[in-house]
């Protein structure tokens, strides 16, 4: 890893319309990866295609800023866990928005810093705003899962910049 930029807090909020991998349902969990070195996962939600996790996962963010990748799996007891799709989102827009926040010296209230549209650098379902809310840079996203028939995951991403006072 290069120069440390700050802390990335990713809340895996919920899934919607996940695919069936067992007889009638699935037992999903999410694995979130930042680069090749940092990985975290949610707990398993049994027998649910629309799970609610609301779990916060923390990562150290450093240069070069890359992608946040996630994979959804169905927990199986007696064989390998089944894949239920994967998605990714570029972290460059949220880091750029944090730098803009520094330049503008935004620290209170709610200010939209940037909008991100679905494209090849992300699996966004719809446009997403990056906002500074009471000094914290946040993005709420819905990601469409790839290589499966259906499924979406909602994340709340918060970037806490090391170089800006009052963000910890």
From TrEMBL:
Pfam families given for it? C2
Coiled coil regions in record: none
Q: Which UniProt keywords apply?
A: Abscisic acid signaling pathway, Calcium, Cell membrane, GTPase activation, Lipid-binding, Membrane, Metal-binding, Nucleus
Compartments annotated for it: namely: Cell membrane; Nucleus
Record-linked SUPFAM superfamilies: C2 domain (Calcium/lipid-binding domain, CaLB) (SSF49562)
Please state the protein's primary subcellular location. membrane
Q: Does the keyword NADP apply?
A: no
Domain called C2: residue spans: 1-104
Which Gene3D superfamilies does the entry link to? C2 domain
Please state which protein family the record places this protein in: Belongs to the plant CAR protein family.
Name of this chain's protein: Protein C2-DOMAIN ABA-RELATED 11-like isoform X1
Q: Which gene encodes it?
A: LOC115742975
